Amino acid sequence: MTSSQNPRSDAPPAATLSAPTLTTMTPTSGSTAGGTTVTISGSSLTGATAVKFGTTNAASYTVLSDSAISAVSPAGSAGTVQVTVTTASGTSNGLPFTYVAPPPPSLSSLTPNQGSSNGGTTVTISGSSLTGATAVKFGTTNAASYTVLSSTAISAVSPAGSAGAVQVTVTTASGTSNGLPFTYVAPPPPSLSSLTPNQGSTAGGTTVTISGSSLTGATAVKFGTTNAASYAVLSDSAISAVSPAGSAGAVQVTVTTASGTSNGVSFTYVPPPTLSSLAPGQGSAAGGTTVTLTGTGLSGATSVKFGSTAATSFTVVSATQITATAPPGSAGSVLVTVTTPGGTSNGLTYFYLGAPVLTSLGPNQGPAAGGTAVTLTGTNLFGASAVSFGGTPATAFTVVSATEITATAPAGTGTVQVTVTTGGGTSNGLPYGYVAAPTLTALVPNQGPVAGGTTVTLAGTNLATTTGVFFGATSAAFTVVSATQVAATAPAGTGTVQVTATTAGGTSNGVSFTYVAAPTLSSLAPGQGSAAGGTTVTLTGTGLSGATSVKFGGTAATSFTVVSATQITATAPPKPAGPAAVTVTTPGGTSNGLTYFYLSAPVLTSLGPNQGPAAGGTAVTLTGTNLAGTSAVSFGGTPATAFTVVSATEITATAPAGTGTVQVTVTTGGGTSNGLPYGYVAAPTLTALVPNQGPVAGGTTVTLTGTDLTTTTGVAFDGTPAAFTIVSATQVVAGAPPGSAGPVPVTVTTAGGTSNSLTYTRLQPPGI
Fold it and tell me: What are the transmembrane regions (predicted)?
């Protein structure tokens, strides 16, 4: 018989799973609160699906092996229950587990056993059976917070309470403990010892650490009579407060709690520093240049920075002068600032000069007669003092930026080295070649459409190095065919223009080319704007459809929109102050140019007078630069009552009412100027004249007593000026002028106005 006819099975018989059996359990009892870890021993425990204490599932369990399980007892009532294990094969026999009710909590000590009536004292409560505490009370008030550290210790924070003793108790599920006494002690009034820092800006905002004692529960922090901008109690001995704005000078800082107000500690308000000039205004990128900074409020300077880099060193010479050593820096401009406890000053520009490096010339050749405008490109070109073509100075040069100079080549021959000299040294040289000038003899054809696109053949001599072909002032695309021929594509244009070819040797004679209509401009509005650009300008004209560019003095508008065939709106690009011709280019050519004026930001240099009465009305002359077109004059944010622009360097304005010292600024289309201080002066008052009478012949020395007399500009007896001497803010001595017998009013005039009058009586001499 084959195996296929009588198959044999070698598979084992299916296993039979036994129900779990329990033999021992350790421990056999635990708290009614649950949480006791029990080890259950037995057999067939693998795959347990439930462990129960009575009818309640274990809080958790872990099968350790087929013969052991670790289980955590759930909460239960006092008494004995059966512990069982269930698997897929059934439920085991039960083993007894006894729930024992924990004893009520008991307290033995408090550490510390007294604290402030403000609360906040951390107290360690020692005792027994403290696990599961549900309440900690100081008298009848719950603790501010508490943490059960163990069954014998609790950490609790006392709540606020009245001075005297209260009982501290702990409550658990088993009851409330005995009480232990905790004594509330009323805190002493606050006391201050120091401020750090003890000075700051009049603008406020200085964060001050106030040190002292009994500061917990502070209800107010004051700088003089003004509340701190904000404060935070860090501890019983420290408060962090932010100073409010204040007037220059010292004030007393105080702290108030429920126990009273502290002693005062002095805090000095310092006005912010200002810088007006620095000299020199440039130096080596290697640093080391000694720079003199001039300004106001420089005493107590804590730092001098060039950009974001601290000066190598600095010396405060006086309240108006600092000498600083420039740190190393990268070539270019940085702002120099001074920081004092009063804040950080305005910034003044300082230029770092690196050794110049030339990378390219454009063009790198030109006519032997000179006159070629050459653009030198490189780095560290600011402050150039010389441009040389083979040892011959450039006819003229302009430093456009730190990376560009335009120079006019002098006459010369052959190939020479071009170099640039700055305060940082002399650059490498780049070759420049002198070549012969081109000439033109013919154009074929010599006319084309206004849209351009005509291919024109230029015939002449010395055309091999052609760098540009121009139809009038408009450049054209071109191809050099030979030394005697150039092919060019006529750009858009109008009328008859002169076509010229430019080579390194110069610009040729012109040959006429006639365009058969181009855009025209008739007006633009506004006609001026800030040198920073951004002004929206409306251009009006004809033939403006399809405009491809709008330029301001050769610089493309930041953006533009063609509104119609007669109107375009364009955003002016940044440019230096001065006039710029605005043009529009369309496929029909480039329009005429209309003048647009770029305005520099206004600058104020002086005010006269620089003070006046608080009621306003003073006629103030403002002197500076770029004042034409002024649209606003502000005294500390308040518009002048009236103003008149006298010239680009002078404005007369009527001061509005105000108080204190304010900054006067001017706003034009070029921006808002720097501010200059203007002081409002209180009106004087007179309280007494001694003596108050004298002869009609005059000559009596009269002492005038009153207030705000420091700036006295005149003393009048019934309108007649008298000679006077200012003794103090409360006293002026004047010589009574002659006059008719009888009483007359006496007044004093200051920058703050004219005082009230007091009576002075002139007496006739006695008769004989």
Answer: none
Structure tokens at 164: 């005297």
To the nearest whole number, what is the mean pLDDT of the chain? 91
Chain length of the chain: 768
C-beta of residue 651 within 8 angstroms of C-beta of residue 644? yes
Flag the least confident range among 375-379, 541-545, 710-714, 755-759: 541-545
Q: Which fold has domain 191-270?
A: Immunoglobulin-like (2.60.40)
Task: Kindly give, in sequence order, each residue whose CB lies less than 8 Å from that of residue 156, ignoring residues fewer than 6 positions away.
Answer: 122, 123, 125, 136, 143, 144, 145, 146, 147, 168
CATH superfamily of this structure's domain 274-353: Immunoglobulins (2.60.40.10)
Q: What is the pLDDT of residues 348-379, one digit of tens each?
A: 999 887 788 999 999 898 888 899 899 999 98
CA atoms of 468 and 16, how far apart (whole Å): 104
357-435: what CATH class? mainly beta
CA-based nearest residue to 648, from 594, 608, 610, 599: 599
CATH of 106-185, one of 2.60.200.40, 2.60.40.10, 2.40.37.10, 3.40.190.10: 2.60.40.10
Higher per-residue confidence, 503 vs 137: 137
E strand or H helix at 489, and its extent? strand 485-489
Count Cβ atoms within 10 A of the Cβ of residue 696 and give its class: 0-12 exposed, 13-18 middle, 19 or more buried: middle
Secondary structure class of 113 (helix, strand, coil)? coil
Whole-model pTM: value is 0.35
> Is it true that the peptide bond before 327 is cis, omega within 30 degrees of 0?
no
Which CATH superfamily hosts domain 21-100? Answer: Immunoglobulins (2.60.40.10)
Query: What does CATH list as the number for 685-763?
Result: 2.60.40.10
Query: Residue 676: its pLDDT value, please?
Result: 97
For the residues 727-750, what does the mean pLDDT come to? 95
Cα–Cα distances (Å) from 297 to 141, 243, 350, in that order, read 56, 20, 21
Q: What's the pLDDT score for residue 516?
A: 61
**Predicted local distance difference test score (pLDDT) of residue 310:** 97
Domains 191-270 and 520-599 share a fold: yes
Which whole number is the average pLDDT over 57-62? 96
Helix or strand or coil: residue 332?
Answer: strand
Nearest CA-CA partner of 40 in 31, 32, 50, 101: 50
pLDDT in tens, 507-544: 899 999 988 677 899 999 998 888 889 999 999 998 88
Whether the Cβ atoms of residue 374 and residue 406 lie closer than 8 Å to each other: yes
Is residue 288 within 8 A of residue 325, CB to CB? The reply is yes
How far is residue 346's CA from residue 402's CA, in Å, rounded to a whole number?
24
CB 431 within 8 A of CB 389: no
Measured over all CA atoms, what is the biggest interatomic distance in the chain, rounded to whole angstroms? Answer: 184
Going from N- to C-terminal start, the domains of the chain cover 21-100, 106-185, 191-270, 274-353, 357-435, 439-515, 520-599, 603-681, 685-763
Cβ count within 10 A of residue 261: 14
Q: Are 754 and 686 in contact (CB under 8 A)?
A: no
Q: Supply 569's token pair.
A: 């709106």
Q: What pLDDT band is residue 505 in, cutting at 50, 70 and 90?
A: confident
What is the side-by-side strand order in the sheet with 313-318?
Answer: 274-279, 290-296, 321-325, 313-318
Bin 281: left if φ > 0, else alpha if -120 < ψ < 50, else beta: alpha
Q: pLDDT tens for residues 618-671?
A: 999 999 999 988 999 999 999 999 999 999 999 999 999 999 999 999 999 888
The hierarchical CATH code for the domain 439-515 is: 2.60.40.10
What is the CATH number that goes with domain 520-599?
Answer: 2.60.40.10
Look up residue 70 and give its DSSP letter: E
Contact 233, 119 (CB under 8 A): no
C-alpha to C-alpha distance for 235 and 346, rounded to whole angstroms = 38
